[in-house]
Amino acid sequence: MTALPRRALLLAPLGAAAIGGTGFWLLLNRMSEGSYDPHGVPSMLIGKPLPTFSLPGQPPSQGFSSADIVAARRPTLINFFASWCIPCVQEAPALVLLKRQGTPIWGIAYKDKSDATAEFLQQNGDPYTRIARDEPGNTAIDFGLYGVPESYVIDKSGIVRWRWAGGLSEDILHQSLAPLLQSLA
Amino acid sequence: MIPELGHFALALAVVIAGAQAVLPLLGAQWRDARLMQTAPALAIGQLIALATAYGCLVWSAVVDDFSVANVAENSNSLMPLVYKITGTWGNHEGSVLLWCLILALCGGAVAAFGRALPSSLRARVIGVLGFTSAGFLLFTLTTSNPLQRVWPPPLDGRDMNPLLQDPGLAFHPPVLYSGYVGFAIPFAFAVAALLEGRVDAAWGRWVRPWTLAAWCLLTGGIALGSWWAYYELGWGGFWFWDPVENASLLPWLSGTALLHSAIVVEKREALKIWTILLAIGTFSLSLCGTFLVRSGILNSVHSFANDPTRGVFILALLAIVIGGSLLLFALRAPVMTAAGIFAPISREGALVLNNILLCSICAVVLTGTTYPLFAELVFGAKLSVGPPYFQSTVFPLAIPLFAAMSLGPVLPWKRAELWPALLKLWWAALIATLIGIAAALGLHAGLAALGFAASAWLIAGALAELVERTRLFRAPFATVRARFGAQPLSVWGSAVAHAGMGVTVAGIAGMSLAVSTIVALHPGQNVALGGYDWTLLALRDEQGPNYTSRVADIRVSRGGDEIATFHPSRRMFTVQKTTVTDTAIQTNGLRDLYAVLGEERDGAAVLRLHVNPLAPWIWFGALVMAVGGALSLADRRQRIGAPARRAAAIRAGMAP
């Protein structure tokens, strides 16, 4: 190896660290300005129509598209979940309760294998009206998904009204979701 | 009075650390023996000052001095004494002080045990440690001082986070931090070597025991943390690829690589530049692991209080320590030259493969952990990287690593043939294949079968190495016994540590076969899971010292025989008004029965039940690994200064 590339190679770790450090510094700046919040940002979708998508189903459920949700013409919860996600297990009872109160829940299995999803549903209950699969995660990107679980409320005319990044609990159900769904009904 | 004394001791420590950073380094540069001689005294002085400061903090917590803000926020008069003490490191300020105390302990250790080091090297090592200490102590004193008073003092404290009121977590931070901070010593040695412009076999011999000690503690710390997550968080898993967990895994991976590459420096005087880079990299990852998680950038379940101004201070410190050392590396590393050349098929070749694979795993985990941040920064996209990414990238790299782990130790140094080495392992390979096939046929789970085969290969491979070295089954008994006794402890250590990895892999493979369910049961009802019959007997209330709890009595039976009765509960902590689930686990060493009590509805309790095969093996294996490291550390040849002492003995005519 000649002298120059060897020297350049030995500079590489410093370069990598510098890039990493600058990145963290930019994020810290944005965080203190308030334009970056690691624990979730208000969704850009609120007040806008549902992003268009069409996804295959998780057997035995049929898949669905954004048009199907709008066509249902009633307030709906879209819930992104995955079998590998622990908070999804924790929010399962809340979803069952919500379903019992009469709100349709349309589930989207995010980056999950079909049989893993099936097992998850078998173990934790299936509160969903229909379940679609988003294995490549493209629809999730259109939604601006922060992570799983994440839920969106869509009103009768297909406008996104509410977003919750993280697991739903009974408290959230009673305090924010139920009043919202009542006002949309 | 006592908190002020502690505050003063902390300020004194900053000053001493500043002197420790400047005087010995200048002394080594100017070859001034008097300046170099200040190093050990300053290191020990800093240790005494910090121990006093920490002692004052513990004192304030024990006597319930709620005029100290940190105690008021994190303690409570009702708390048991042991948690009042452990609570001092259960929060940001206290844990940073503990971190600094351990760093001072490292400096003190080099001062006390490094007498045989060349004086300029020792002065530089202690100077670099002092420099690092000074920065982080300044951070503690100015932004995170745990000894600050509050006026007016509250009547009682706000209590400690109930999740942390647990024996496993109480001792997790000291062990984990000792592991993190322990890597400061190899780091200081690396920077000192760059300043000296010289790395030789002796350097490798000095670095290795410190690395080994830090590695053992880090292994133990990670295992404790994972065990705590398993039984305390009640999620039924043991590793969630959470950023904070990954932050501890990263230095472990690169530290393991360092441990092995230092052997090559010691035995073959090769891989010098690489070893120095690994030593710098490992400590850098430790620093990022401890401090970046506190800046609040990473989204994690284990978060400390966040404050962006603190984040900027930390980042500046990291830039100086990491950036400075890497700059020095870029400038000075070209001076180092490798003495040995080596063949790909040889012990050192296997160690290089180990390094490549460990560093690749480290790189993919690092990428997965930071990718969401940089995607946000560069593409403005919000995304999350979940376990599927880590599993699909780490497993393919782990398989060749496990394969090499058994092969490496039976290869001779310098030049080797692959075939004779493989022949030494034929029965290990046979056992692994048979177990793999049996598991695949019996369990119908390919990945788990692969895991069991890898585990058998690791354990049998470790045995094969010992069999090979002692000539068991081939030589007469007396020879075997003599060779058995003659093996250095480090051989036992590496065999035990490799076998420990095998035990952990078996545990992980077993965990992948776990079954679980969520059910709502009324008292008297039962449910079947994993071949066991689970009956909810009763639900009742119980009163604890600073909580009330709701307890479920569950009886587990199999084929009519009662196996266990256990009591998962939910604790309502009175002061912080939070609820914590207390998982009940019944283990027989081969499987865990695991129950979590959830909410109650219409007289029915929601229960989460798990059957986790081989779960305890995961942590037992980690313990075995740490014991292996400790065995190796106990090797006489590893003792610091042993070579120099022997050389001195030879000169004095007392040669062994």
Descriptive terms for the model:
heterodimer; A: 5-stranded mixed beta sheet; two-stranded antiparallel sheet; 46% helix; B: 656 residues; Four Helix Bundle (Hemerythrin (Met), subunit A); 6-stranded antiparallel beta sheet; 4-stranded antiparallel beta sheet; disordered C terminus
Q: How would you characterize this protein structure?
A:
- Chain A is built from 6 helices and 7 strands.
- In chain A, the strands form 2 sheets. In chain A, strands 5-4-3-6-7 form a 5-stranded mixed β-sheet. Chain A has a two-stranded antiparallel sheet with strand order 1-2.
- Chain A folds into 2 domains: 1-37; 54-184, Glutaredoxin (3-Layer(aba) Sandwich), CATH 3.40.30.
- Chain A has 185 residues and is an alpha/beta fold.
- Chain A is 46% helix and 17% strand.
- Chain B is an alpha+beta fold.
- Among the domains of chain B are: 1-165, Up-down Bundle (Four Helix Bundle (Hemerythrin (Met), subunit A)), CATH 1.20.120; 515-616, no CATH class.
- In chain B, 63% of the residues lie in helices and 12% in strands.
- In chain B, helix 5 (92-113) packs antiparallel against helix 6, helix 5 (92-113) crosses helix 8 (172-182) and helix 11 packs antiparallel against helix 14.
- At the A-B interface, helix 1 and helix 3 of A face helix 12, helix 13, helix 14 and strand 1 of B.
Short recap of the structure:
The complex is a heterodimer of chains A (about 180) and B (about 650). Chain A has about 180 residues and is an alpha/beta fold.
Largest sheet of chain B: 6 strands, antiparallel
The number of helical elements of chain A comes to 6
Indicate the mean pLDDT of chain B. 86
Molecular shape of chain A: elongated
Task: For the largest sheet of chain A, list the strands in their spatial order.
Answer: 5-4-3-6-7
Helix share, percent of chain A = 40-55%
Tell me the β content of chain A: 15-25%
Kindly report the oligomeric state of this protein. heterodimer
Structural classification of chain A? alpha/beta
For the record, the CATH architecture of the domain at 1-165 in chain B stands as Up-down Bundle
CATH fold-level topology of the largest domain in chain A: Glutaredoxin
Total beta strand runs of chain B: 10
Tell me the structural class of chain B: alpha+beta
Number of beta-strand segments of chain A: 7
Rg on CA atoms of chain A, Å: 21 Å
Count of individual helical segments of chain B: 22
